Amino acid sequence: MNVLLVDDSRLARTELRHLLQAFPDVTVVGEARHAAEARTRLQELRPDLLLLDIHMPGETGFELLASLEAAPHVIFTTAYDEYALRAFEVNALDYLLKPVQETRLAAALEKARAKLLAPALAETAAVPVSPVPDEPAPTLLTEHDQVFVKDGERCWFVRLSDIRLFEINGSYTRIYFEQHRPLIPRTLQHLEQRLDPKVFFRANRQQIINLKWIESIEPWFSNTLKIRLRGGPEVEVSRQQSVRFRELMSL
C-alpha cells in the first residue's frame, strides 16, 4: 500500500513516517507540505492512500479534495476534533487526532486494506456464495479510541473509556457518557463485535457496561448480581452473565 503524507508540519510528517515503519506492507512514496504540492505529488506518484492534514497554508485538506477529479482513499490526521462530521461526509476512511496513536493508525490502515482488497476479491471470486458486503469486517476498538456520535443535529467525538453504558432503546442503542444520552442506529450485537471484551461486558440482553466504571457490586435474586456504575445507573446482570462475570473477575 503506497501512502502520500500531506502535512505542513515537518515534525508531524516525520512522526507519521516513524509510526508507519511498524507496517511492512506500507510504503511512504512521498510527502507534501501544502495542497498545491500535494496535487503535483498525486499526479506523479498515484498513491493508494492519503494521510491528510486539514489546516495547511493556502488551502485546507477539504479544499484539496474538492479540487481533485479523482482522489485516493483518505485518512485525516489533525489536531482538531470539530471537523469529524465533515470528514465523514467526504467519505474519509478515518479521522485521527494528533498525536496519532499506533493502535488507531493500525485500525485505520486496516480499513484502507479492506477497501483496496475488495475490488480484487470481487473479480477473482469464481462463484460468489453471497453478495460482497459494502463495509469491511468491524475493527476491534480499544478504550483509548475516539468515536463519532451523531444524534439529530448534535454531534460528539467521544473517547470509549468515557462511555459507561450502552443500552437498547427500541431499534436504537442509547450511549451514556457525562450527562449525555444520545441514541445511535446500532445494535448491541454490532457493538459487542467492535468493543474490547476486556473492558466492555455484556451484562444482559439489553446492556453492555464499561467494567472500569463499576462503583459497587451486590448479590441479587436467583444468584444474579446488581452493579452500580459511577454516575448511574444500576444494572442487573442476568444469571448466565453473572456466572461469566464471576469467572472473568476472579483470580
From TrEMBL:
MF terms in GO: DNA binding; phosphorelay response regulator activity
Record-listed 4-aspartylphosphate modification sites: D53
Signal peptide feature range: none
Gene3D superfamilies linked: 3.40.50.2300, LytTr DNA-binding domain
Entry keyword annotation includes Translocase: no
Species of the source: Hymenobacter psychrotolerans DSM 18569
Name assigned to this protein: Two component transcriptional regulator, LytTR family
Residues of the Response regulatory domain: 2-113
A Pfam family per the record: Response_reg
